[in-house]
Amino acid sequence: MSLISLLTFMFAQVSPDLSTQLFDAIRKGDPAQVRALMADDPGLASARNREGATPALWAAYTRHPDLAPLVLGSREPDFWESCALGRADRVERLLADGRDLANRDSADGFSGLGLAAFFAHLEIARQLVDAGADVNRPSNNSFRVAPLHSAVESGLVGIVELLLAHGAKPDVAEFLEATPLHSAAARGSLEMVEKLLAAGADRQRKTKDGKTAAELARQFGHMKIVEMLEK
Questions:
Q1: I need a surface site. Which of 55, 74, 139, 184 has the fewest CB within 10 A?
Q2: What is the pLDDT of residues 58-87, one digit of tens each?
Q3: Pair 165, 154: CB distance under 8 Å
Q4: What are phi and psi of 105, to 5 degrees?
Q5: CATH code that applies to domain 170-231
Q6: 26, 62 Cβ separation under 8 angstroms
Q7: Residue (of 14, 21, 10) closest to 44 by Cα position
């Protein structure tokens, strides 16, 4: 199950209060309902779901970033929202005021680097690495995903290269004991698999349910990757 699927499963519960209605409307990608709810209560812009995510972050998580301006209103996005939404200009200004942000987590446990990596914002990822972000620090929540896991999920090889070049450990494991190599193999990303192997990734490592990267590649029909991993 992907990170987005897990997040959606965790946060999609419906209850009668307006904030929960707002998060559900964002999940559904319903701009009309989002506008109506925000009109009823503009204070919903600063609401939090049970894991601590803001409506703007939730819009990014559920792949509806176009809804973020509706919930932000006149408010500028905060640091983590900016990292998720690709606001490199805002990230630069906020880092100038406090470089410690590069190694702080959002209320729901994700670092700016993890968010920038996951949402394929290479420029922001580079800004954060240059500001001293720890490329190996896992998320401070049950997922325990490192930035390199997020980079693989993004599908952007450039971010994987950036993190590896700055010391990201290729065999870091998340909550299911999957390494970035497992994820790259399952996704069918031949180039990422090559990059991770070149960085020393262990092709024999197994997930919590006992699968190697080659076995995951075979499961999803990526036979060229199976051949590479079983050489």
A1: 74
A2: 999 999 999 999 999 989 999 999 999 999
A3: no
A4: -105, 150
A5: 1.25.40.20
A6: yes
A7: 21
The mean pLDDT values, 10 residues at a time, for the chain of 231 residues are 50 62 97 96 92 96 97 94 98 93 96 98 98 97 97 97 98 97 97 98 97 98 97 83
- Whether 76-169 and 170-231 share one fold: the answer is yes
DSSP string covering 133-196: --TTPPPSSTT---HHHHHHHHT-HHHHHHHHHTT--TT---TT---HHHHHHHHT-HHHHHHH
What does the pLDDT read at residue 24? 97
- What CA–CA distance (Å, rounded) separates 94 from 86? 14
CA atoms within 13 A on the CB side of 63: 8
Residue indicated by tokens 């500028």: 76
pLDDT score recorded for residue 5: 52
Q: Which two tokens stand for residue 133?
A: 């972000």
**Residue 109 DSSP class:** S
What are the two backbone dihedrals, phi and then psi, of residue 6, each rounded to the nearest 5 degrees?
-65, -45
Give residues with Cβ within 8 angstroms of 74, minimum separation 6: none
Identify the pLDDT of residue 99: 81
Extents of the domains making up the chain? 3-64, 76-169, 170-231
Q: Which of 40, 26, 124 is nearest to 69 (CA)?
A: 26
Quick one: 76-169 is in which CATH superfamily? Ankyrin repeat-containing domain (1.25.40.20)
